Amino acid sequence: MHIGLIGLGKMGFSMRERLRRNGIDVTGFDRNPVPSDVMSLTELAAVLPSPRVVWVMVPAGKVTSDVVRDLVEVLSPGDLVIDGGNSRYDDDLRTADTLGKSGIRFVDCGVSGGIWGQENGYALMAGGAAEDIDLAMPVFDALRPRGDRARSFVHAGSVGAGHYSKMIHNGIEYGLMQAYAEGFELLSGKGIIDDPPAVMKAWQDGTVIRSWLLDLMVNALDGDPELSRIAGYAEDSGEGRWTVQEAVASGIPAPAITAALYARFASRQEESPAMKMVAALRQQFGGHTVQLPGGPQMPAGPEPEVVPEPEAAAPPRLPPAAVDESGSPE
Ligand SMILES: O=C(O)[C@H](O)[C@@H](O)[C@H](O)[C@H](O)COP(=O)(O)O
């Protein structure tokens, strides 16, 4: 099988390597001519056999929609485009519509595995029509880890289902990472633990919480046990936010994922305007001490102004309670 691959960045480049190693002929195109095999989309379309299969691996949003728009110009009815980037699932419906108007087929595919995928294989979550999934199956099989297909590939549903699955996968990723990270801080914050990284290392086999993320934590702590070379600042690429937005839209409680997302936002603030206000309000109502920015404690705020109690008003006169024959009020 011979396919086109658009986008030869960190992910696309290593996917091309894995595909070639597993018997798929790949012609790659990137805006950067250095890793490209051809110099234009027209050239790419010219070398691919019919029906053409083109895997798009570029950043979600405008870059993806620009590539799709350009592909409409060079592809033919019956060709298949696969979006393997991290697109939002509702963008897939628009992409399918744009391509469908020219008779071009579309599959969306969430890809997980990061920079380790080239060696370990990528887990794939695809959405689209069954015949389009079948056409691309040799590509999916070359990308995923060897072994039982059902453990690393799913045809999750119609167009959009692949990226919806990947979005929820990433929401879970946020929650898991946050839980491990908080556990590490708690282990490190108590003098009773001699070697917190050693505790995490000992959780790798046999425990209920063993996982690949835990293995990666142990890797990160090897040689930098206090993570002293990394700032406590974490970006997000969108899928965690989309997961939380979906939770709100569906009325499904997702407190762990939401808290993990907010922890990333907080990580980017050197000073928290909201917490400054909390401290100011404590000082206002309780005369509690506050801290100077980055400095020592300030004494309690000014004595609160004493507001005299208003004179108690006379209670309103009420009519006498009606009394029934038993003598009890009604
Ligand atoms: O499954 C994966 O391989 C990862 O999820 C991958 O897709 C990527 O590392 C995330 O997109 C990072 O997402 P954030 O930037 O939102 O943390």
Characterization of this structure:
This protein has 330 residues and is an alpha/beta fold. The chain has two domains: 158 residues, NAD(P)-binding Rossmann-like Domain (Rossmann fold); 101 residues, N-(1-d-carboxylethyl)-l-norvaline Dehydrogenase, domain 2 (Orthogonal Bundle), CATH 1.10.1040.10. The chain has twelve helices and nine strands. The strands form two sheets. Strands 2-1-3-4-5-6-7 form a seven-stranded mixed beta sheet, sandwiched between helices. The protein has a two-stranded antiparallel sheet with strand order 8-9. Helix 7 packs across helix 11. The longest helix has 28 residues. The chain is elongated, with a radius of gyration of 30 Å. The C terminus is likely disordered. The site of 6-phosphogluconic acid has 11 residues, from helix 7 and helix 10.
